[in-house]
Amino acid sequence: MRKIVLSVSFVFVFLAFSYAQKKQVTVEAVYGGEFSIERLDALRSMKNGKQYTILNRGENGATTIDKFDYSTQKKVETIVSSADLPEINSFSAYQFSDDESQILLATELEPIFRRSTLGIFYVFDLKTKKLTKVSENKIQEPRLAPDGTKVAYVAENNLYLFDLTSGDTKQLTTDGEKNKIINGVTDWVYEEEFAFVRAFDWNANGTKIAFLRFDETDVPEFSMDVFGTDLYPTQETFKYPKAGEANAKVSLHMYDVKVGSTASVDLNDAYYIPRIKWMNNSNYLSVQTLNRHQNDLKLYSVDAKSNMASVLLEEKDKAYIDITDNLTFLEDDSFIWTSEKDGYNHIYLRDQDGNLITQITKGPWEVTQYYGYDQNEDKVYYQSTENGSINRGVYSIESSGENKKALVADEGTNAADFSADFTYFIHTYSNSKTPPAYMLHKALNGKKVKEIKNNNALIEKLKGYELSEKEFSTITINGNELNMYMVKPKDFDASKKYPLLMYQYSGPGSQSVSNSWLDARDFWHQQLASQGYVVACVDGRGTGFKGADFKKSTYLNLVKYETEDQISAGKELSKLPFIDENRTGIWGWSFGGHMATNCILKGNEVFETSIAVAPVTTWRFYDTIYTERFLRTPEENPAGYDENSPLNYPEMLKGDYLLVHGSGDDNVHVQNSMRMIEALVQANKQFDWAIYPDKNHGIYGGNTRVHLFNKMTNFLGEHLLQPKK
């Protein structure tokens, strides 16, 4: 269960607009997508560091990859256009070969799960203009060899190698089988919780391919009915390891391209292998492993000649260790690494043998993104919360930890995309009042060179709406100073009494109170504010970017302290003179839906109304990797699973409760809501509920989101907006 995070390519949906008069926000306008924000899509820096490419979509439906010059921001050329390729109507993603002589183009992509897709792929040769289809069938995760002569990919759980010169395809594994053996891509739970799909990689000279193999034989199956439009429903069956159940047995293998043989690598019975990454020396692979409790991480170095593994470093934690992609090998294969071992996420430099050279960053703040290291200038570039936990700034520092410089750190959210040689970076800036703007800066001194794109037109359009500002503050709850925002009606009158709706997610390491541009749910909150609600959000214990102790304070008691904080916050906010203490509601999605359910039960003296969308109702139903990271197994910690499960106290419901789920949710299964429904029925408690057929965890498609948010709006209008008689 991972919170969706917006990256450099922002996608927003906006509101219908009229210049004639100020308008209120409507659900139809929010989810109608009539206006979208200016963005830079699929930006790639060229190896020369002087130019970059962007994927553009033309009005005629054609797609192009266009090259731009960093210094002038002028278009240099169109590298490839689908209009010139009769075989392709359009493409939606691209990837250069290491030598930038060829481009892999993705077409006809279709989703499998959250991050995985199937598609038809082509290789375009920039010199000859030749277009080559990789496979007639839809495949997964193709990857060009470093010299651009071959493509490795996965099809039907097996790994294949396509030779671009001869046109021959070689099958590297033969035991792949649905719901049994997977080669080269991850299983469902790795994809969802370790956030990666492609589980193979080429070494630097293209002589070896390292890959993971998943044996799912002992993993229990989960099945979902798919109602569709045919006479009879069908059933989707896949392996899903619930807390305490068997995981796939994962192993590491090395394929020798020249010899054509595969060897296994012994990693001392590693339970999880969440990352593999080749070093600069093409004979060495780095591998990260975790034990089942996820509190003992080992970083291995694997000699690809002997297939022998040795431990570079080991980190242990009393609670758990998060997996990240913050690992960079320098020219001599010393490496930069991030860790929370001093209580905050910081950057460390280690030598080739894993020995600590220096802790590069220090302080009571978090490194939120590591951008890379410029060895020529000895500069480490990173993003952090040094300008406040709800803000983000971009900084540089020497590998010694000296001469730190704030490159862009205005209040709000600053992010950077660096050129390959670290001469420039494209700065993306937003805050709660300002939609993203894109500027070009010099990396060494942070000096702004020029503006690339802004959203001034959008700002003008939004002047036609009755929008309220987010008011950021903190609130002291249960001995902790918690971040909070509040949205009040535009015509707010402190002498009046308003209903309060609290929104939260509350999952471990998450952040909902952020000084960044608004998303679609914020605009729904604007609609509610225009109708007379006060909307508030409080990030309680367990949320992120305030240090490891704060984040891990909920360990072994997931949802207990988070629920206490929301109930206490609701109680404190209800004391405000402009809040009607008899009209307090809370809502959330996924983890937040679990919280909203718990709050109206355990906090039934505080909350009169609650909406839970796609909630977990018992962690016994959720997957191993996420759940056991925070609770260990049900056998080890039964109280941690059951004392905070709303299935065990439905009789505590007093207020108005709306429960919503998609029947095709492969992540938080509809089983959670069905069991909650049954528990409430048997407790003889009245409530409202809705099931959206075949919709996944996001509950979208066609008019689904419009219908859902109108239902939620109407529910709140009936039960929370008007004073109780």
From TrEMBL:
Signal sequence interval, chain numbering: 1-22
Domain of life: Bacteria
Transmembrane region(s): none
Dipeptidylpeptidase IV N-terminal domain residues: 97-436
Claim: ATP-binding is one of the keywords in the record: no
Keyword Signal recorded: yes
Record keywords: Signal
A family per Pfam: Peptidase_S9
Domain (Peptidase S9 prolyl oligopeptidase catalytic) ranges: 524-720
Record-given protein name: S9 family peptidase
Organism: Zobellia barbeyronii
Source organism phylogeny: Bacteria, Pseudomonadati, Bacteroidota, Flavobacteriia, Flavobacteriales
